[in-house]
């Protein structure tokens, strides 16, 4: 059903058609939140303001506990693309039933659509995040909810220090509970980055405990942001090399206590740690990508496929290679990066330089320049159909004589003096005569 157009002078404008989730979708959403059957309501019409606020708080709590704040799609996927369309968000986080979450525009975009579908009076807005004293541009999303004449805002996509309950948008400056001994508050004030001292905006602040000072997390106004605003924000957040989302793997979700309240969180990056009431209770350090992938499945219930696991190879976020010095690990990653983004290795199997070869043969690492030369050689020599595991780049002086066994155009390439192609590469492509004796 379409709304009647509104006439303004000579212009005709239609009220925006906001996406809504169906009853069946909301049922799946509630299943994902592990929301008890007796607490499920599919419309808030008829609820008193107090009951509506309590329901909103319950939904926010369950969302923070069940759906992680994470950026895996920017590291463990071949496309590294984030869609913030409400249906795409529902498919990824709810329908696929794989434990996934997302970053702010995903989690809050999904949550905001649910609230609107339930009949809450909502709209969303952008925020600027403080990072070690520096203020970003618009890069965060929050959701406003109006209940009984009072405006609140909710946030299910900020991570460890984000609000854990609806925050009243008022000038009281009241201190709100957080995960004890932490607390939170909302301030209406100027920020030091403003040129105009008369400017005011809302600043969400968090304090670890009574011994620490208040720290600003992000700031925002009450201006409604439109889908086009978020498309611009999402493009920057998901692709900029300066944002932490593209540089590190990050996951976080809240933990419930026996009394049903939030008591801590689990955080994953280059390790996984559990924090209860502000204290680190447990920590597991990772020594390899395999360790991290295993922890993602074990502690977050997300099982990454082969393509997803391999997609991080060569990225700055990849774990250092176990068993190698930092220098050798960086050179190994340099090669993987070149193969991922360079023309030469586009169709060549990613395991062409295997860690196992380093371990067994004691090979030194590839520099970036050697990686480029060697990758070009692989392309000209045809590579290996099917990607046989024994086809490796050999960096041993003993392998230099094998160059004589390769086809002429392979020999003529400018290879590094200490680098030669394993004869198996051309043997697989041109037959035994071309490859000679092999290993």
From TrEMBL:
Keywords: Acyltransferase, Transferase. SUPFAM superfamilies: Cysteine proteinases (SSF54001). The keyword Cell cycle does not apply. GO terms for molecular function: acetyltransferase activity. It comes from the Eukaryota. The keyword Transferase applies. InterPro entries: Arylamine_N-AcTrfase (IPR001447), Arylamine_NAT_domain_sf (IPR053710), Papain-like_cys_pep_sf (IPR038765). Belongs to the arylamine N-acetyltransferase family. This is Arylamine n-acetyltransferase 1. It comes from Paraphaeosphaeria minitans. The lineage of its organism: Eukaryota, Fungi, Dikarya, Ascomycota, Pezizomycotina.
């Amino acid at each position: 059903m379409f709304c009647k157009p509104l006439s303004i002078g000579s212009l005709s404008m239609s009220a925006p058609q906001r996406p809504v989730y169906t009853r069946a979708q909301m049922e799946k959403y509630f299943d994902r939140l592990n929301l008890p059957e007796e607490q499920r309501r599919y419309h808030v019409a008829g609820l008193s303001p107090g009951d509506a606020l309590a329901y909103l708080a319950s939904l926010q709590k369950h969302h923070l506990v069940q759906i992680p704040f994470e950026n895996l799609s920017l590291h463990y996927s071949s496309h590294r693309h984030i869609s913030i369309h409400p249906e795409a968000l529902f498919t990824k986080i709810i329908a696929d039933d794989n434990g996934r979450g997302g970053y702010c525009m995903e989690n809050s975009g999904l949550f905001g659509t649910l609230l609107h579908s339930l009949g809450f009076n909502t709209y969303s807005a952008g925020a600027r995040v403080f990072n070690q004293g520096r203020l970003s541009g618009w890069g965060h999303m929050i959701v406003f909810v109006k209940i009984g004449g009072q405006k609140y805002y909710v946030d299910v996509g900020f991570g460890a220090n984000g609000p854990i309950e609806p925050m009243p948008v008022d000038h009281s400056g009241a201190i709100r509970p957080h995960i004890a001994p932490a607390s939170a508050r909302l301030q209406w004030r100027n920020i030091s980055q403003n040129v105009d001292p008369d400017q005011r905006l809302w600043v969400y602040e968090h304090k670890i405990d009574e011994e620490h000072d208040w720290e600003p997390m992000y700031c925002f106004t009450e201006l409604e942001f439109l889908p086009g605003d978020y498309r611009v924000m999402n493009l920057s957040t998901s692709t900029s090399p300066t944002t932490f989302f593209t540089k590190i793997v990050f996951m976080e979700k809240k933990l419930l206590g026996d009394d049903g309240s939030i008591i801590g969180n689990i955080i994953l990056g280059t390790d996984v740690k559990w924090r209860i009431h502000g204290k680190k209770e447990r920590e597991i350090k990772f020594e390899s990508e395999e360790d991290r992938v295993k922890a993602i499945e074990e502690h977050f219930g997300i099982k990454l496929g082969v393509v997803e696991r391999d997609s991080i190879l060569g990225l700055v976020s990849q774990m250092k290679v176990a068993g190698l010095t930092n220098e050798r690990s960086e050179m190994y990653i340099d090669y993987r990066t070149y193969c991922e983004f360079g023309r030469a290795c586009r169709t060549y199997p990613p395991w062409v330089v295997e860690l196992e070869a380093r371990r067994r043969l004691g090979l030194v690492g590839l520099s970036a320049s050697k990686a480029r030369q060697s990758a070009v050689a692989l392309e000209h020599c045809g590579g290996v159909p099917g990607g046989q595991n024994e086809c490796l780049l050999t960096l041993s002086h003993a392998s230099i004589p094998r160059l004589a066994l390769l086809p002429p155009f392979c020999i003529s390439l400018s290879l590094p003096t200490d680098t030669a192609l394993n004869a198996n590469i051309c043997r697989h492509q041109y037959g035994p005569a071309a490859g000679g004796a092999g290993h």
